[in-house]
Amino acid sequence: MKNREAVSFVKRNWSGWTTLVSSVAAAAVLLFSVVLNGCDTTSSGPAMGTVRVMMVDAPSAYDAVNVVVVRVDIQVAAQDSTSGWVTLSDDTATYDLLTLQNGVDAVIGSAAVTAGHYTQIRLILGAGSTVVVDGATHPLVVPSALETGVKLVHQFTVAEGGTTELTLDFDAEKSVRYQNGTYRLIPVIRVVANAEAGSVSGSVTPPDDGTTVELRSGAEVVATARPEPGTGFFKLCAIPEGTYDLYVMGTLTTDIRVPNVAVVRMTNTTVGTISLVAQ
C-alpha cells in the first residue's frame, strides 16, 4: 500500500521536479557563460600596420652636416594642420647626412600605426645641428618658421598587417645656406615610397675622389652619387621606376654617358664597372 502511495506521489510531482531541474541547468549554463566572458580580455581593436621612415643623402662640398632630429610624425588623412599626428619616434638622434650615401641609410622612425590613409610626414628638428666646412665646425641654425617641424606632403596608405617604407632623400648641398655670416638649415627633401622605387649601382676604375655620378631624366638630375674612395663603388637609391641616362664625370677624365638605364621598382640595376679615360 505504501509503495503505491509513493509511486502516486512521484507521478503527481514529476512535472514540477522536471521544471526545477531544467531551471537549475539553465542557470548553471548562464553562469558559466558569464564567467567565460569575464575571463576573455581580448578585443578586436583597430587594424594595424607598420610605417618605417629612412633617410639618405646626396654628396655635397661640406665635410659633414650633422642634423639633430627630435621627433618623426605622420598625419592621418582628413585632419587639420594641428590634429591627427601620430609619432613614429621621439628618440632624439644626430645624423651626419654625408655618411648616408651609396646604399647606406638610417631608420629615423618606425612604429605600428592604425591602417589607413596618411598625407604628411613631419620632422621636428632640434638645437645643436652643425656643419663642418674645411675642418671648422659651425652652428647650423634652423629658422624659427621651421620650429613647428618640416612638413613633407606625401600621401600613402598603410595596409593591415603590412609594412610601408618611405625614404627621405635629404639634399645637404641645397639645404645648407650661408647667409649674413650664419649657416642656416632649410631642408630640401624628396620623399619616395620604397615599394615604387629601385636603385642603380656600379663602380668606376680607377677610383678618383673627384668623380661624380649622375642619373638624369632628360635635363633633370634625379640623383647624384660620389664613388667610394679606394673601391670606386657607387649606388643611387630611391629612384622612381623608369629609364634614365647615367653620367660619370671626373675632374681629370672624359665624361662618360651610359644610356637607357632601366630602373625597376624593388630591384637594383647594376651597370658594372665603368673605366675612366684621362683627358
Structural description of this entry:
The chain has 279 residues and is α+β, with helices and mostly antiparallel strands. It folds into 3 domains: 33 residues; 144 residues, Immunoglobulin-like, CATH 2.60.40; 83 residues, Immunoglobulins (Immunoglobulin-like), CATH 2.60.40.10. Strands 2, 3, 4, 6, 7, 8, 9, 11 and 12 form a 9-stranded mixed β-sheet that branches. The protein is globular, with a radius of gyration of 32 Å. The chain starts with a helix and ends with a strand. About 6% of the residues have low confidence.
Jot down its keywords.
single chain, 4-stranded mixed sheet, 279 residues, 9-stranded mixed sheet, Immunoglobulin-like, 52% strand, alpha+beta, 20 strands
Strand content: over 45%
Q: Main β-sheet: number of strands, strand sense, barrel status?
A: 9 strands, mixed
Structure classification: alpha+beta
Q: Which stretches are poorly predicted, pLDDT < 50 over at least 5 residues?
A: 17-21, 24-36
Q: Could you say what the CATH topology of the largest domain is called?
A: Immunoglobulin-like
Give the count of structural domains: 3
Give the fraction of residues assigned to helices: 10-25%
